[in-house]
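hiii, so i know i said id send this last week but things got crazy w the move. better late than never?? heres the sequnce for the chain we talked about at the cafe, plus the structure i predicted for it. fair warning i was half asleep when i ran it
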Amino acid sequence: MDPQPPHVLIFPLPLQGPINSMLKLAELLCLSGGLHVTFLVTDHIRRRLLRHTNIQTHFSRYPGFDLASIPDGLPEDHPRLGDQLTEIFDALEAVTKPLFREMLVSGTRRPPVTCVIADGILGFTIDVAKEIGMPVICLRTISPCFLWIVFCLPKLIEAGELPFKDKDLDAPIRSVPGMEDFLRRRDLPSFCRSGELTGPIFKRYLTESIQVSRADGLILNSFEDLEGPLLSHIHTQCPNLYTIGPLHAHLKSRLSIEKSLSSFSSTSFREEDRSCLTWLDQQPSKSVIYVSFGSLATMTWDQFTEFWHGLMNSGKQFLWVIRPDSIAGKDGESHIFTKLRENSTGRGYIVGWAPQEEVLSHESVAAFFTHSGWNSTLESICEGVSMICYPYFVDQQVNSRFVGEVWKLGLDMKDTCNRFIIEKMVRDLMEDRRDEFMRSADHMANLARQSVGEGGVSRRNLDRLIEDIRSMSLRTSYSQSPD
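okay and structure toks below
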């Protein structure tokens, strides 16, 4: 009996960023030929994708692709924002885990699933796969520099660097190999600041290195020239390591070869206001700073006021993304959006959501005021756009430190929100130190492109991943076949 073709089930964390990058991996696997891919999202996410993207039309070109969904255990009106991660994880463990197991063992998917690629923070996917004897590969959509800190959490506790003994956030951290010379307390993940080592989010990350090391491999959305030394450290914990990033650049490179294929228009859960591209067309080259703090971050009205004054006083043109739920306690108050838009006339342009990859690649965009999410950071790097970083949570604190101190691609503004500092940083990035940052950004952009090009390390690692999936799936097919 001939073995079944490889069938990969991809299960991302149900948030915008992870789905964005893992859907790009799904298409890369589809393009490899001969692989069936099921992309598993929650029912809530599926509805949003169908409402705001062309996912069904785009992926119809791949006969082996299927968009499947599963309940997440939360009511439909749950906001699912960044400060509710514990509720999201708890519901997934309680409701989604048994349904996920049933999906894998029921045999209802044809051909049968032979390999799982899941977000590494969803530890229950590893539990289920190991229990039923199915190969499982973790993909972490956060930065490797953050992941290495997570792996070092036990060492930080043992060395007495966690919990903090006082309130000095500039105290150096010495127990993360490879970061001894520049890491400070304020650069550690946000969940390290509470002073408690028993919180649910801290405990989840504390056990992640143990969970991830149980998997058959680890995929990282990064490239060797960006984080080579830290990747060597992670390799000691996860020997079967696939660095295949930047995923969005990898997919763009592959689609450019496949002349008959167009790119996927968007993975956004929100309706994009494409009028901002028309506005950008009217601006001079390298004159605009793009401002966006991602899909989850929230701010107070006072913080937004400081940003508005700082941007206006800088004298620079700006394109600013303000989601309807951006302002804490002001959800749905459209007059805030309207007032800001009116007061910014002539200097800035404000939208509720933007097609970010297209914005960052636009000729008029010179800089990016960002929350330092990993997708945003990589997208900025690939387009050679320098950054000002105002991180919110999880990996963003360390990402912003690497942008400013290690890669020299911008400025780190964490833990302060002052109109005068904002004005100064915008002027530094776009005037006083413009040439310095542009040289660094152009250099790193070239390295990113080379990594996914013909013969690049990320390209070779993707080829190895695909071959390993075929081998793993072959073993699974034989084990599933009757004697």
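btw The chain is about 45% helix and 15% strand. thought thatd interest u
miss u guys!!
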